[in-house]
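Figure S7 source data.
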Amino acid sequence: MNFDYPPEAEAFRSEFRAWLDANFDRSVVGDAVAMRAVESPEILDRLRTWNNALANAGYAAIAWPVEYGGRGAGVMEQVVYAEELSRAGAPGTLNVIGISNIAPSIMQHGTEEQKRRFLEPMLRGDEIWCQGFSEPNAGSDLASLSTRAVADGDDFVVNGQKVWNTFGNIADWCELLVRTDPNAPKHKGISCLLVDMRLPGIEARPLVTITGEREFSEIFFTDVRVPRSALLGPESEGWRVAMTTLTHERGGVASLHLGVRKKIAVLFVLARSTRRGGRPAADDPVLRQGLARLYLEGEYLKLLSDRAVSGLLHGRAAGPETSLAKLVWSECETHVAEMAGQLLGPAANTGTWGRDRVYARALSIAGGTTQVNKNIVAQRVLGLPRA
Ligand SMILES: Cc1cc2nc3c(=O)[nH]c(=O)nc-3n(C[C@H](O)[C@H](O)[C@H](O)COP(=O)(O)OP(=O)(O)OC[C@H]3O[C@@H](n4cnc5c(N)ncnc54)[C@H](O)[C@@H]3O)c2cc1C
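Tokens for the predicted flavin-adenine dinucleotide complex:
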């Protein structure tokens, strides 16, 4: 495998790096990632202003086609883009779920009117989107969802409950999966609606997580009248739309290693500067072995990402290696947090490390749980029989 970047990707790196150096000011933008937008209108505003700046310069959604405000960037430019944002410590766009997961579904299945209406405000971060898929009894087994939409004249009347909706309490719009035909086989009777979160009968209740944040909500729908024009794709063919969304959700693995390898590098610095019994912690042979294991895990994750990128460059759709990378990433994040605990002791219970130590759990669930990903790897990579 050739690890060199093509000249056009390096040219894009120089251009984007120069723009970031000139335009990203941490003291103005802050260091908040998009997920923190739920915490206060002030953080939301700051991130929105930054998102607008990215959009004005054509750097909000570089993978989108030019006609929708993107740059039609190739795979290597997307890799470089993620690397440069990470290097600068700059947040990306506000609509993390909208831009990477929901927009591809709108582009593929939406009407021209839907594309015109929704894509630009999503790109600019002027409208926030959430994904209304999971329910209390439909998570890994998403096709069991039971939120009902009954046709009534020009509307659907929606009743039911969603849960774990990232951005649910600040979202303007929701990509909502509903059951329109309860008599059809479970994958067949589902439709997808683009729902205005301000419609009467919708209530988003923020869920406070173990980190004390309100990253997601549960959303209740009571006799909500949603116009038929909100259908994304044909009625009762919502499963196809959902698969487009989820394929893109799982396609973001190529840059997962960036954040976690940055944290590993910080742990190495800390191991040298933290003193234990009058000596640098890095002198402890047990700790050194742990750090070495962690380093290798990070490099392994990078190679998995490179392999996924190579597949994309050769025109192969994201396959089961995506599940493997997701699995290794969430485990690596957990091991990083555990190592911070070993190294820093009680000091790792507060601040960023403290948050990471409890948040790492969520990474084994979001975007496909560890067990479900292990099933995929077992069946599709190792060829083992279905459990
Ligand atoms: C940070 C975060 C953000 C999220 N954001 C959103 C969002 O924006 N929108 C949204 O709709 N949802 C969102 N979710 C929900 C997420 O998609 C679900 O939590 C996930 O699909 C798992 O579903 P569940 O929680 O119902 O667990 P379940 O599916 O009930 O699983 C419970 C346990 O059983 C195991 N299990 C389930 N099936 C199998 C099987 N076949 N074989 C072996 N083990 C199995 C699971 O691995 C898990 O350990 C988010 C979750 C997290 C953590």
